[in-house]
Amino acid sequence: MILAAGRGERMRPLSDRVPKALLAVGGRPLVAHLIDRLARAGFTDLVVNVSHLGELIERELGDGARHGVRIAYSREAEPLETGGGIANALPLLGEAPFVVLNSDIYCDFDFARLAPVAAHLASGAVAAHLVLVGNPPHHPAGDFCLHRGKVAADGPRRLTFSGIGIYAPALFAGVARGTRCQLAALLRPAMAQGCVSGERHRGQWVDVGTPQRLAALERLLGGVDRA
């Protein structure tokens, strides 16, 4: 699943007319970079949630055939936040653990690594698996701690959640479809029970959340798609 329903407040004024997922870097929409990486890693059945200017995303991506994938859309009248958006899309996601990505990241993470982890989550012992990264300058305090493969809400050395995760459907069982819910509100109780695993990605990762960071990434890539 690719999360593309957000309003993109921090990206305004660019996101007033173009949904954040379609903002271009290296000559292509952010979401296209992610979809192509997912396709190369073997993930070909995708769900994209949409709300703000969602019709533009659907028009650009279509059924996904151009990218070698199949795309289904989960439509939200108003953005439901991450947890609510995922819960709303559960009928499209099936009963097995699934990968979820933020649409506003650019990275060189090898998504093929996630398939065996998802299979492990199917055993029921783990509710979620998070990919964490070093804290960027705009988020120095981090989000969670990683110790011996387990993610905790608190601890001495915090890392930043990358926006890449794997989740068991049961994590969202208590969220009514169509209601707003933050993902952290679901993850923290699971962390307290030792049911969230994780790993650290040390390669390229950019949270493209503001016009300034979008411009910096464009300069880094030199206008060339290096995905």
Give the fraction of residues assigned to helices.
25-40%
**CATH architectural type:** Alpha-Beta Complex
CATH fold-type name: Spore Coat Polysaccharide Biosynthesis Protein SpsA, Chain A
Tally of contiguous helical segments: 7
The rounded distance between the terminal residues' Cα atoms is: 19 Å
Overall shape: globular
Main sheet record: 9 strands, mixed
Number of DSSP-assigned strands: 13
Low-confidence stretches: none
Question: Which whole number gives the mean pLDDT?
Answer: 93
Multimeric organization: single chain
What topology does this entry show?
Elements: E1 2-4, E2 24-25, E3 28-29, H1 30-40, E4 45-50, H2 54-61, E5 70-75, H3 81-88, H4 90-93, E6 98-102, E7 105-107, H5 114-121, E8 128-133, E9 144-147, E10 150-152, E11 158-167, H6 183-192, E12 196-200, E13 205-207, H7 211-221
Parallel strand pairs: 1-4, 1-6, 4-5, 8-12
Antiparallel strand pairs: 2-3, 6-11, 7-13, 8-11, 9-10, 9-11
Helix pairs in contact: 3-6
Structural overview:
It is a single chain. The chain has helices at residues 30-40, 54-61, 81-88, 90-93, 114-121, 183-192, 211-221; strands at residues 2-4, 24-25, 28-29, 45-50, 70-75, 98-102, 105-107, 128-133, 144-147, 150-152, 158-167, 196-200, 205-207. 26% of the residues lie in helices and 26% in strands. The protein has one domain (2-221): Spore Coat Polysaccharide Biosynthesis Protein SpsA, Chain A (Alpha-Beta Complex). By secondary structure, the protein is of the alpha/beta class. The chain is globular and about 45 Å long.
